[in-house]
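hi! just following up on the protien thing from before. the input was this:
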Amino acid sequence: MSTPSSDANPTQPGDPPRLEATVIDAVARVAFPRRKIDGIAVRMLYEHAATLSENRQPRMIVDLAGVPLISSGVMGILVTINKLFRHVDGQLHIVCPDPLVVQQFDVMNLSLILKLFPNEQLAMQQFK
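and the predicted 3d structure came back as:
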């Protein structure tokens, strides 16, 4: 009898999902109910964005509310998604209400190329 790998059963019963994807007014919204972004969530985020990028002018909000720390891998995938969307005239907005997380983007100079917003309402209003 073999034991299941962590990928075979990525969540325990009752655990919130790693990634929650919804659509609001033709804008894809992704949030992280576990308040952290692990490798599986990064892969799920990229796969969701890649699917969206098959259409012209995709619009996506990545909501980092409640996520206290962003790894360099997450930052890298956000830059990749931003480039992917730019090639199809899409837009990526990142909701980042935590000043310490904003500072992480600033230190890496990523706030110059990624669009960060303090709340979802403002991020929605800034779509063209």
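Residues 27 and 40 are 23 Å apart (CA to CA).
The chain has one domain: 20-125.
cheers
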